[in-house]
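Support request from a user on the community tier.

User writes: "When I paste my structure tokens into the form, the page sometimes reloads and wipes my input. The last time it worked, I copied everything first. Here is what I submitted, just in case something in the input itself triggers the reload:"
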């Protein structure tokens, strides 16, 4: 994984908005409606080429395919793996709402049965590959899109076993541990394929902090920590044998605009996050709830040889972040972890679920990327005088 040796590099977190005609094809597939497989494959390929061009034009250094062929960063397992044929009747569990009036207004805007949410999977059988070729197609599409492009590096995303457990319950496996390792045993093939193709592997694990609020809010703190350690142990099992410097690990507290008043503090889980066998750690750092957590790195030393990829622009508002603010954030992080150990990024993806209305309009998203690139340029001038 390349480091910021002469200037601060920039990247993003993977998912980007899909073109409308591709969204329609993805939705037809998700809903089990007829669609043209060849047309779908060709449109994914052209969408990847287009989105790579846009990333290059915005000035991003480390680019991706935008997850153009996936309906979401996690529910794609339903399309590619067996065992997820059923529909989860209660896909959004959680504790009693702290702000029930607000929750009702949100529910009215997007009811649980909305097609915009996609079909929530449920595990009801043994997990195995049924469309392993789609991983190969993703790799081929990104390789083709990169031909002749002036990019520093490229990455591809894949879901963590813990994130699948978080959003996709099992009715087949006898325990969380059995389910996690069954997932790890299959997902490791996707991880290895991405790395062997020459790309950086980004493993997405929002569940790491989020499950405290949505699944394990009513258990003792030590039990939550035990569950988190179990999930990350399963991930490390799936990553075994892969070079750490080809892996980056992404955690966040949920890519949605909401109160977030009960989010777990980064300081309380950072030791477990850093225990993942990765060369870089992508962690939110720009939104209103977590922008202060640069302070964690005053007390916690980034391990030798590792890279921090903090969020320096937010992904849930249509404010275009000011480049000077981006630069200030990056300089502060650089002073704590070292300029060569830093890569600039957004908090999360901008197209987490293909079917949902975009919180940030694509036009503004590209402006936010350009502001981030400019902020990294300003910070680099100060860090490499």
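"...and here is what came back when it finally went through:"
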């Amino acid at each position: 994984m390349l480091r910021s040796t002469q200037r601060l590099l920039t990247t993003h977190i993977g998912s980007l908005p899909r073109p409308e005609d591709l969204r329609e094809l993805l939705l037809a597939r998700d809903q089990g409606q007829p669609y043209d497989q060849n047309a779908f494959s060709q449109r994914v390929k052209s969408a990847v080429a287009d989105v790579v061009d846009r990333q290059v034009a915005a000035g991003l250094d480390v680019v991706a395919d935008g997850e153009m062929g996936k309906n979401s960063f996690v529910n794609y397992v339903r399309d590619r793996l067996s065992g997820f044929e059923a529909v989860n009747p209660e896909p959004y569990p959680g504790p009693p709402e702290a702000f029930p009036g607000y929750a009702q207004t949100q529910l009215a805007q997007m009811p649980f049965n909305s097609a915009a949410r996609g079909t929530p999977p449920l595990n009801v059988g043994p997990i195995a590959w049924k469309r392993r070729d789609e991983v190969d197609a993703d790799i081929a599409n990104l390789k083709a899109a990169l031909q002749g492009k002036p990019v520093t590096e490229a990455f591809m995303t894949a879901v963590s076993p813990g994130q699948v457990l978080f959003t996709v319950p099992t009715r087949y496996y006898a325990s969380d541990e059995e389910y996690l390792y069954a997932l790890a045993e299959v997902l490791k093939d996707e991880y290895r394929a991405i790395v062997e193709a020459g790309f950086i592997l980004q493993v997405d694990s929002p569940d790491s902090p989020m499950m405290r609020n949505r699944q394990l809010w009513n258990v003792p703190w030590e039990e939550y920590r035990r569950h988190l350690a179990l999930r990350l142990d399963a991930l490390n099992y799936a990553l075994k044998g892969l070079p750490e410097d080809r892996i980056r690990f992404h955690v966040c507290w949920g890519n949605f605009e909401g109160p977030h008043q009960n989010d777990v503090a980064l300081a309380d889980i950072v030791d477990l996050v850093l225990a993942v066998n990765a060369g870089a750690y992508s962690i939110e750092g720009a939104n209103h709830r977590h922008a202060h957590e640069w302070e964690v790195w005053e007390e916690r030393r980034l391990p030798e040889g590792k890279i921090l990829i903090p969020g320096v622009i937010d992904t849930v508002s249509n404010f275009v972040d000011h480049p000077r603010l981006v630069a200030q954030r990056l300089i502060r992080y650089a002073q704590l972890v070292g300029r060569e150990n830093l890569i600039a990024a957004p908090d999360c993806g901008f197209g987490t679920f293909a079917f949902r209305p975009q919180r940030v309009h694509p036009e503004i998203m590209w402006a936010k990327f350009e502001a981030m690139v400019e902020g990294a340029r300003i910070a680099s001038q100060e860090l490499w005088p």
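Agent notes: The reload is a front-end session timeout and is unrelated to the input. DSSP finds 13 helices and twelve strands in the chain. The chain has a mean pLDDT of 95. Escalated to web team.
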